[in-house]
Amino acid sequence: MEQRTPIQTEKEKGDRAGYLFVLPYIIFFLVFTAYPLIFSFILVFHRWNIVGPMQWIGLGNFATLLHDPLFWKSLWNTARFLIIHIPLQIAVALVLAEILNQHIRFRGFFRAAFFLPVVISGVVVTILWQQLYSTDTGLINLSLSKLGLSRVPWLTSTTLAMPSIAIMATWKNVGFYVVLFLAGLQSVPRNLYEVAELDGASKIQQFLKITIPVINPVVVLVVILSTINGFSLFIEPYVMTSGGPLNSTLSTFLYIYKEAFSFYKMGYAASMGFVLAAVILSVVLVQRKIVETDTYT
User: Can you tell me the mean pLDDT for 257-285?
Assistant: First the structure.
């Protein structure tokens, strides 16, 4: 029998200790990630209402999805939200980060103030903005009335409801992206700006030719995170409009939730979830390619 050396014994003890340390994460991953993902994949091919047994229907859920106008409407609503939200969020976050990167008074206070909405509960923020947007008693419309302007149906108009939600979501999340842009701006070497000034470059030229290319990885990250978070739009339309008026703010996530927990179509909801994941992956890959190409050209 081979005799183990003290070094081998210590190594085996270290390996066992390492496995014990990672065991909680492995259990967490298996229970909350792997199992739901596998179970959802099984649901895709079944009809299940939680109470009764599963019924195998093959690709029936996908066939239903292809002919479901409400699913495609929810996808288009989400796209409308992203078209407004992403450019607005990136522009506002980048401008605020550029300002906060300067030597201004109370800079630390403003940095904390802009980040504060990020850590506040999304439901609380949504209820607050719902009151602000109220047609009859909202502070925004009351201010417009005092200025002699007509009241705006922010959440009751099929045209304005989704842009109103996009503005609110931007206010809620912009502080997080300000922090990311601020970290990127602080990594830009100052000597690049000094050389550009000696060559006669204006501030705008420095920003476009130096700042944007250098912080390109941060720009890509912000675009990707904004897109993923935008496709996950749920709390805002759920609390503020319940998907109305006339399903104009029905996001894909909200539609999946209603199909699963209001109508108990668990298999159909799982199918929509996988299709949405494929759409998000495709959009993110295209965005990354476009942003990286445009930044360096």
Answer: 93
